[in-house]
Design brief:
Helix content is 13%, strand content 29%.
Length: 70
């Protein structure tokens, strides 16, 4: 567990696939949580130009199918 929850309160784990908004802008590409330190830095540091302003878990690399539940 990363210690971070998405917009719906779902715990974020390594291997999760996220829909993200950087600087308030929805991104077309998904983010794979594979570097926990980078995720934590982008999520908690508002001084970064493209910090994560919102994220939603849409799946996990260990699931057979990824479902977007945005």
């Amino acid at each position: 567990y990363t210690g971070i929850n998405d917009e719906k309160g779902i715990d974020i784990y390594e291997g999760d696939i996220l829909k993200v908004w950087l600087g308030g802008r929805e991104q077309e590409e998904y983010l794979l949580v594979d570097d926990l330190r980078a995720l934590y830095f982008l999520y908690t540091n508002s001084n970064v130009r493209y910090s994560i302003s919102k994220m939603i878990v849409v799946g996990n690399i260990h699931e057979k199918e990824t479902k977007e539940n945005v």
